[in-house]
Amino acid sequence: MVKPIAISRLLLPDRIVVGLKGSTYSQAVAYLLDRLDAAGLISDRALLDEMVDAEATGGQYPTLGPRTLLAHYRSDAVQELAVAMGTAKKPFGFAPAEASDAVFLVLIVAPRTAAKMYLKTLAALSGLLATPDVADALAAAGSVEEFLDVIAGADLLVRPELMVSDLMSREFQTVSPDTPLSEVLHLMVRHRRRGVPVVSDNGEVLGVVTEQDVLQHFLPQVLGAAPLVDGRQPPVEDVDVRDVMQRTVMCLSEDQLISDVLGTMLSESVSQFPVVREGKLVGYLSRTDIIVKLLEHMV
Fold first, then answer.
1. Are 28 and 86 in contact (CB under 8 A)?
2. Rounded-to-integer distance, Cα 74 and Cα 108, Å
3. C-alpha distances out from residue 233 to 49, 225, 238, Å
């Protein structure tokens, strides 16, 4: 059985740069690649440099949230999965608008055969840097030793099995029971969601409103099934979410295995789940999330 690997075993001292410099994305990534190259992990540096330059030309750099830029390459130019990371004293000048506060640059390289471990490592680092206290401490670290102390304190493991926390959406929309259903409809269309959690003021999950709930209320009126009033179709009647939401909802915890969740999705015909921690909503997992996130990192 494959055992979990601590993030600290992947982020070795010689692969961390505190005070990373570089006026361009290519220069900053090249600096981290130099560290992996010096460790003897790269068999074809020219090929990786071409991949970095191609990405830089497009100008659309991947991110792991508003404070982190991500450089990730799966290629046979590397011998094993490796991670390097740099921190900057002030936000990178080349960062895109959605990550204008980025002070972290994470580099992940892996052979094409290491798809599962690659995805797991990416998810673990995403979770690490999404924790505000940890991210603040890493940004404030004045040396590699201080940086590693923070990593060790977080005690984060890359587990062999995918968990809910690895694939769930941490950016999600919520509504209250008093939200008009028409507003939920606009929210679903705008964010391409098939369901939206209904939460209380303190973040507790009260239920969920799905596209089916929206259709069952609005569609008969739009199609003219509602009784005529004075010979005319009445205006579409809006209602509050509380009038149509599903109050019985299955929630997940962050440490549940994706393999178990997939079984529930198939056997119970459930396609989306709120994810809770101590009763409070912390994420949202849908069948679409699983498909999209697996595909984007395995192609």
1. yes
2. 8
3. 64, 9, 15
Q: Residues near 160 by Cβ (< 8 Å), separated by ≥ 6?
A: 1, 2, 3, 4, 120
Residue 174: strand, helix, or coil? coil
Please indicate whether the domains covering 5-160 and 181-298 agree at the CATH topology level.
no
Look up the pTM and report it.
0.57
Q: Give, in words, the CATH class of 5-160.
A: alpha beta
Query: Could you report the per-residue pLDDT of 97-107, keeping only the tens digit for each?
Result: 878 889 999 99
Domain boundaries, the chain: 5-160, 181-298
Q: In sequence order, what are the beta bridge partners of 246? A: 208
26 Cα distance to chain centroid: 24
Helices marked H in the chain — which ranges?
7-10, 25-38, 45-58, 115-129, 132-140, 144-154, 164-167, 181-191, 211-222, 258-268, 287-298
The CATH number of the domain covering residues in 181-298: 3.10.580.10
First-to-last alpha carbon distance for the chain, in angstroms, is 26
CB distance 77 to 52 below 8 Å: no
Residues 207-239: tens digit of each pLDDT:
999 888 888 888 877 676 556 556 565 566 888
The DSSP secondary-structure symbol of 113 reads G
CA distance 67 to 102: 4
